[in-house]
Amino acid sequence: MKNFLFLTVTILLLSACSSKKSLISKSFERQLSSAFYQNQFTGVLVIDAETKDTIYTNNSHKYFTPASNTKIFTLFAALKTLPAQIPALKYVEVNDTLYFEGTGDPSFLHGYIKDSTALKFLQNHSNLVFVSNNFQDKKYGPGWAWDDYQWYYSAEKSALPINGNVVMTYKSPELMVSPSYFKDSVLELTHLNHRNETSNTFYYPPTKKDTLETPFITSNQITQSILENLLSKKIGNVSTMPTGEKQTLYGPYADSLYIRMMHESDNFIAEQLLLVSAGVLTDTLNGKLTRDYILENELKNLKQEPRWVDGSGLSRYNLFTPQNMVSVLDQLFTLVPQERLFSIFPAGGLSGTLKNRYAGDEEPYVFAKSGSLSNNYCLSGYLVANSGKVLIFSFMNNHFKQSTSEERNRLEQMLQTLRDTY
């Protein structure tokens, strides 16, 4: 009798689950077969986070341009390689001289993270020598648009970034410039661009009131000069560390960077985190070292091998499948406690890039990373259904000519179907 009851309950549960899947599938097929989607490329995968059952799939094995969904892979790489606190500097002390090198840490006097750990440490040493040979990457990622050089989202990569490698200019009421080293390089006049393409000459319109963030051209000499200006002391420069065991100075908690990267889709932090990870893995700052390590060791069982070329998703060379995204999201769901994980991702209707979208009736039900480039919009993450079940999803839309707003509206309808049905 007990076996009969168990079998009956099991059959009823499976039947209910099958019915829910059928309703979702019919709704999604009706939406995706509409005229709106006929002239674009869309891929979808939704699974149950607990049972791993596939709820819906369409083109989930095919490659898409992910845009900032790439940051999901960067987050995974950082969580797998970095300690709870970010390495801020590496150094060797010889007699009364401190030799130091950057770790790629993006938080050093960052305009929003505002970490001063490294600055205070350097202030406490009289004789400083900057070691500048560990950055073995390029300042821009492959496939980045060359004419983005003047926009805040395309700051250059470097070993020891300062102020997010941007010049912040605003009125208060006089013109304020940070880092102050560039004070005399900002011209208060209206210009077609915010900065000269090949020099650190900046323009701030006289009528502008809000803050302008403009990337500056980096170099070892520029970094040294900014530090000398900040510390009011001369700094030496050599290409190699002296003999001795390197010590590490630790900075802010890593989650503060992860949250900024995911909530605000901060490209600079994403790129620099790959450099920090590379420094932990190899002592050389090169993002490819991190990407290769993660793909060859932590993600070697992905069903499709992605093309992963940067940390931010700025490059259109990146190629990922919805299955790639869901696989990594699934591993994150296992690796990180749910409360912490959901705090790192933007919450629909509440925070970050999802603040004005995907709102729940009383509380957030979507925790996900969006990704936008012209003619591309992707959203991948987690959904909490009304039943309390957690779903992992990836919606990837490429090559559309309609408005991104309409893409989001239709996606929101499908997410609501998942929430209300499953």
What is the secondary structure topology, with strand pairs?
Blueprint: H1 2-32, E1 41-48, E2 54-58, H2 70-81, E3 85-94, E4 97-102, H3 117-123, E5 127-131, E6 166-171, E7 175-178, E8 186-187, E9 202-203, E10 212-215, H4 220-231, E11 236-238, E12 247-253, H5 254-263, H6 267-282, H7 287-298, H8 322-335, H9 338-344, E13 366-373, E14 376-384, E15 390-398, H10 404-421
Parallel strand pairs: 4-5, 5-11, 8-9
Antiparallel strand pairs: 1-2, 1-15, 3-4, 3-12, 6-7, 6-10, 13-14, 14-15
Helix pairs in contact: 1-10, 2-6, 5-6, 6-7
Which terms summarize this structure?
422 residues; alpha+beta; Beta-lactamase; 2 domains; five-stranded antiparallel sheet; five-stranded mixed sheet; globular; hydrolase; Peptidase_S13; serine-type carboxypeptidase activity; D-alanyl-D-alanine carboxypeptidase / D-alanyl-D-alanine-endopeptidase (Penicillin-binding protein 4); protease
Provide a short characterization of the protein structure.
This protein is an alpha+beta fold and 422 residues long. Helix content is 33%, strand content 21%. It has two domains: 28-66 and 320-421, Beta-lactamase; 78-282, no CATH class.
Our count of helices gives 10
How far do the termini sit from each other?
A: 31 Å
The biggest sheet, with number of strands, parallel, antiparallel or mixed sense and barrel status, is: 5 strands, antiparallel
What best-fitting shape do the alpha-carbon axes yield? Answer: globular
Low-confidence stretches: none
Approximate strand percentage:
15-25%
Helix-residue proportion: 25-40%
Order of strands, main sheet, comes to 2-1-15-14-13
Query: H/E series, N to C?
Result: HEEHEEHEEEEEEHEEHHHHHEEEH
**Structural class estimated from helices and strands:** alpha+beta
Whole-number tally of structural domains: 2
Q: Residue-averaged pLDDT, rounded?
A: 95
Count the strands? 15
Work out the radius of gyration.
24 Å
InterPro entries: Beta-lactam/transpept-like (IPR012338), Peptidase_S13 (IPR000667)
Family: Belongs to the peptidase S13 family.
Protein name: D-alanyl-D-alanine carboxypeptidase / D-alanyl-D-alanine-endopeptidase (Penicillin-binding protein 4)
GO biological process, one term: proteolysis
